[in-house]
Every structure is written in C-alpha cells, then in structure tokens.
Amino acid sequence: MAGHTAPSLEPPVHPDPDVLVAINGDGGKTTWRWWAAGAAFVTIAALFVGMSSTSGPQWETQPLSRDTLVRSVTAVGQLEPTDTVEISSDLSGEIAAVLVAVNTPVTAGQALAQLDPEDFETNLDSATAQYRSTKASLDQGLVNLETAKLSHARTRTLFDRGAATGVALENDAQAEKAARAQVSATRAQLEQQAVAMAQAKRNLSQTTITSPIDGVVLQRYVEPGQTVVSSMSVTPLFEVASDLTTLVAEVGIEEADVGDVAAGQLASFTVPAWPDRSFSAEVVSIDLAPQAQSATVSYRAVLRIDNTEGDLRPGMTATAEIEVGREANMMHVPTEALWFRPEGTPEGAGDRIFVLRGGELVEISVDVIGTSGTRAAVQAEQLRDDDQVVTGEAS
Description:
By secondary structure, the protein is α+β, with helices and mostly antiparallel strands. It is built from 5 helices and 19 strands.
C-alpha cells in the first residue's frame, strides 16, 4: 500500500542501558533490568532441561558387523623330524674313529664311526682257516668213499665167481658205509664253518658304523677311544633325523574337540622362537587310542610342516590352531555384549544382547554360533545390520 514502509529484516539491537535511562528516565532503567533477569531465567531453564535430558545412563556401543566365522581347535605339541633313527652297535669293541659331528648332513650308507677291526679280522682269518681245513677233509673223505665203493664192487665180482669169501664182501660193504658216513659228517662241519666264516665277515663289516637313512646327525654320544659294550640294553651311538625340510608336529587334541578334527584340515601355528610369525601345517592323522601319559583324555594328532626355509627345529614347542569350520557373512557382535546386563535385568536362560534403538535399550535373544578373538558370531531374526550393540555403561 502506498505510504507504508516495508518492515526491516535486520536483527534487533539491544538498547544500551544508559540510552534507556536517558530516554525513559528511571522507568526505562527498570525495564532493562527486568529484560536481563528474564534472559537469565531462560538460560537457566534451558540448562536445566539439558541436564534433565542427559541425566539418564549413557551406554557404550559398538556396531554390528558381518564377517566370516572361522572355528578352530587349539592344540600344543612339539616339532619332530618325520623319521628319527637311533644308531647303535651290535659289537663290543673300542671306537677307533668318529667321522661325523652334530649337524652333519649324511647319506644312507655313509660311515659315521669305526670300531677297532683287529680282533674281528683275526676272527675272520680263523673262521676262514677252519673252513678251508674242513673243505680239505671233505675232499679226502670223498676220495676215500670212491675207493671204498670200487673195492666193494670188485669184491662182489670175485664173490660171484667164488674167488672171494662172504666175510671179505661184508667187510668191504661196511667200509663203504663208513666212508659215506664220514663224508656226510664232514659236509655238516663244512656248512657250520661256512656260517661261522660268514658271521665273521659280517662282524668285520659292522665295525664300520653307517647311517641307514639320508638325513642329519642330531646327537653324537661317542668319542674316539671309548669302549662299546654290546648287551641286551643297547646304548645309542648316534641319533640321525631324516631330511629336516619336512617336520611334523605331534599335538594333543582334547576329547571335547577330537570329533571336529580330521585328516586334511589346515592349521597354523607359532613357536616361541618366532612369536610374530605364523607357520602353515596340515593334519595328517589322529590316533584312535588316547595318550597314555596325559593328565586329561587327549588324542595325538600329527601335523605335517614344510620347513624348506629351515627356520624350525626339532623340539620346538608349537601352539597350533586347527581350522575345523568356516562360515561366511555371519553377524558378529563384541563378546562383552553377551555378558552385559543393565541394572535390574532379571536372570534368564539362553544368550541375549542389548541394542540401542531410538535411545532405548532393546533386549534380543541370540544363538551363539562360535567365537573368535573378541567377536562372537550370532544368529537372531530381530537383529538389524545398522544396530548399535551395547557393551556396557559409559563411565
């Protein structure tokens, strides 16, 4: 409309109290004081409302997540070579030489030590001489037998012609039998002498102590000059392990977990020497019989390990995690959420968690599928992907 001025959109300017006093006198000053008091009241009221809105309990929350659940069984054991052989001697004698040291790689048939062979060479010479003597006696006995046979045949001819007596024929027959018996006895002696000579040769060959497998010397228990005494309780001279590029870990599986472990499952493990490294392994076998010396019922499982790099050694303690199951896209919540209960919450059966929705706690029953570390895999129809899971009350 003409003659009217448009209202200003600028913010109002608070009047200066002195100006108000100048304009309104004492009455204007009183008006300003009332305005200031009102502003202070509004501020206090707003603060009170804010305090009232935050006076309730505050909750610590973590978001619900989805991840793959890996279920594993923990087992502890020791690393061992795939094959270990304790080498001893069947002979008694003095160690003349030791040809290898600890950690020496060896091949099958390689000499490890040498017994003094002098006595064994003497035994072989004696057995050989006796064999040759018996062999000569056998040759003589065969000649004698042939002579007795010819004499017996000639006497029989003469006897048939009436030129020899029956007594002569009988004597020649007995002589042939005696010669034949002597040959048989000498043959038996020769066989015995052959066995004795072969044993002497074997003993002489065993004075050189060799490795039966390819591998490495783990232990050496003898020194040159030491006397080895063969007895029922055999004392090992060396311990040789097979190629250490492949090791095994023998671990104990608790009876509650043994039903989940099977050959072919993958595992990872650590050793104290390399605490920040994880090594791979594979389950080879699980014993049917329990371990005899275990305080609790457990079963031995063998894990195969690739040690191509040579960082692992026999005897190291291995803590293995055997993967027994894997499920993808599982809902995960913090494990603390399973234990959290707001004050005044009644006891109840089953697992449950609390989520924060619209500032309010919502209780949800869940099925715990498994745990790994600080997270637990759960199932519950009421859970949402955007839920904030309550883990405790904020301090």
